[in-house]
Design goal:
By secondary structure, this protein is of the alpha/beta class. Helices cover 31% and strands 24% of the residues. β1 (40-46) and β2 form a beta hairpin. The two termini are 25 Å apart.
């Protein structure tokens, strides 16, 4: 039986930087491993040498399955030099230093090996593993899986994103908008003959800095947020710009209607803008007192020897796609990676954290009813 740390290192050696992704070879490696362990495996293909994996084991119909999900694409390396090969999967003491070590090939490796061990024990519990391509650029891999058909809703979902093995009970939603403002071009020496789109965008951005969502903060997730991430306009210094573009990143709390929020943003800018939705993902939330969530928190606290606490993620995940499609099962985010190291140069994950995650997932499967 393959070790969770060794599988982490194997997965890291596949260059799945997204874009472009190229996750198919890594997905096939996992599919073959799971098929060898007796899982029913299905590849969900995507264009461009990309694929996701759905694997099942256990008795269908004996109760709803316990599902685990994680993605195998990783973000680009960045401009700073790495201290070692980011795709070698080298171990330095207690650290695996590599791109994807924390976010999140260690989480995938831990739940795959835990599920393989459970299958080898023959306990009959139905377990579903959903391993996605294309999470980092907007969850398109998860969307392709839902479009292809999940074939049954699980009773609970574990998203193995980096949490340092603390169970997170939710994360905010994400609404990303692009606002395009049009003007009329003219010679820069005769600006009165044109209509400056950059001025319109500047006024709109200034108004957005004062936008209020009009809802109280969530008791755990906090308040919704808005950030103008980019502003572009014009093509040369001596022309009046006839186009400007604003990109807006909002992180939302439960109860905020994204369609209505988009209309409010457009009205608040007080400029004639064309709005395009780039990302529209709902948040997820499971009450900490949910019996299954509470039992997982007890397992995690016992394995890690760290106190229980109600926590949430700052990032979004494939759960935004899967939870609505699955009918809203209780969902936890729990994985061995370090949240603060995601997307960093010299990203690393603790070997001990990987082994802890394997133990937590194993106990979760054994306790599942």
């Amino acid at each position: 039986m393959i070790d969770s740390v060794e599988l982490t290192r194997q997965l890291i050696r596949y260059d799945t930087v997204n874009p472009p992704g190229r996750e198919r070879e890594c997905a096939v490696h996992l599919a073959r491993l799971l098929e060898g362990g007796g899982f029913e495996v299905r590849l969900v293909e995507m264009p461009g040498d990309r694929a996701s994996v759905i694997a099942r084991h256990g008795r269908p119909g004996a109760g709803k399955a316990l599902a685990f999900t994680g993605h195998i694409d990783v973000v680009p390396l960045g401009t700073r030099a790495w201290s070692r090969d980011p795709f070698a999967g080298e171990v330095d003491g207690d650290r695996i230093v590599a791109r994807g070590a924390s976010d999140m090939k260690s989480g995938v490796a831990a739940f795959v090996t835990a599920a393989l061990e459970a299958a080898a024990r023959g306990d009959g519990k139905e377990v579903v593993l959903i391993i996605t391509a294309g999470e980092e650029t907007g969850c398109e891999g998860a969307e392709s899986i839902v479009a292809a058909g999940l074939h049954g809703a699980p009773g609970a979902l574990v998203v193995c994103e980096p949490t340092a093995n603390a169970p997170f009970v939710g994360h905010k939603g994400a609404l990303w908008l692009k606002a395009v403002l049009a003007g009329i071009t003219a010679h820069g020496s005769m600006p009165e003959r044109g209509d400056n789109a950059v001025y319109k965008a500047a006024r709109a951005v200034n108004r957005l800095s004062c936008f209020h969502f009009g809802v109280p903060p969530h008791p755990v997730l906090g308040a919704p947020t808005l950030n103008v991430g980019s502003l572009h306009g014009g093509i040369n210094i001596n022309s009046v710009p006839d186009r400007a573009e604003i990109q807006i990143d909002m992180r939302t709390t439960p109860g905020l209607d994204h369609k209505a929020l988009t209309e409010r943003i457009k009205a608040h800018m007080e400029e004639d803008a064309t709005i395009e939705t780039l990302v529209d993902l709902p948040g997820i939330w499971t009450a900490p007192e949910d019996p299954w969530a509470a039992s997982v928190a007890e397992i995690a606290a016992r394995v890690t020897r760290e106190p229980r606490a109600v926590k949430t993620a700052t990032y979004f995940s494939d759960a935004s796609i899967f939870v609505p499609a699955m009918g809203g099962p209780p969902t936890l985010i729990l994985g061995p990676g370090e949240p603060a190291l995601a997307h960093q140069t010299d990203e690393w994950c603790s070997v001990e954290r990987v082994r802890q995650a394997h133990a937590i997932y194993s106990e979760m499967i054994a306790a599942w009813k």
